[in-house]
Amino acid sequence: MKRITLFVLTNLAVLLVAGFVMELLGVPEWLASKGYGVGLSGLLVMSAIFGMGGSFISLAMSKWIAKRSVGAVVITEPRTQTEQWLMQAVARHAQAAGIGMPEVAIYEHPTPNAFATGASRDKALVAVSSGLLRGMTADEVDGVLAHEISHVANGDMVTLSLLQGVLNTFVIFLSYLVGILVDSFLRRGENDRGPGIGAFVARMLAQVAFGVLASLIVMWFSRHREFRADAGGARLATPGRMIAALERLRTRESVALPESLAAFGITTGKGVSRLFMTHPPLEERIERLRANAGLAA
Length: 297
Known about the structure:
Number of domains: 1
Order of helices and strands: HHEEHEHEEEHHHHHH
Structural class: alpha+beta
Strand order of the largest sheet: 3-4-6-5
């Protein structure tokens, strides 16, 4: 569950910082012409610049943040037989999927998990936990790697960035409108016109509220793309290996990745409301794979 949560939280942080920067630069005052006469087209353009910009900043930083969030160590020269096999397996799947060779990394954690991230199909990162390598068979790990390579091949991070950018645009746009309306109501009858502290507070609160609602759409997309990555993993590593990998994960106590990376992991923790889940339940994913492969449950 790590990859998407990291992306979403980074996005929210960028949006909030962008809001403060706009306040410092006097953007609200620039938009307000003789009171509250806001040019909606100008506001929408400004929102798109900051909204899309924030999303693609998050995308550009995704590998850097991911490595440091989990302490992932990139394999430059394989030192063990396991590392050699891991590099070969990733290279085999990457070639079959038609993408460039990703960076391959291992991070220390006792529970099995993995994630892939990066700004493009040819410059991605695939990282696995030490617990995944110790607690799963080679065939099961192969299924996990195929799943992660499918995420990269499907361009999930770029698609997610475009979706988040559009959502960011409307979050900023709507929050500014809310700020103007609230401040206009609070200051009605006053001779001093123009945005005040009420507009600033309302904008910040509305930005957080709309940001949470936007994240629900991102989480829905994340769940949808997990089914696609499972199907891609089944094509690259065979349905049996993909199903075996998910079955093994279902028997283990799942642990969440850092919040910033949650959407990019192979699995997610339990006890989370479905609306805020980045991954569908493992049972649903296994059932979908079995149905696609024509296997009995």
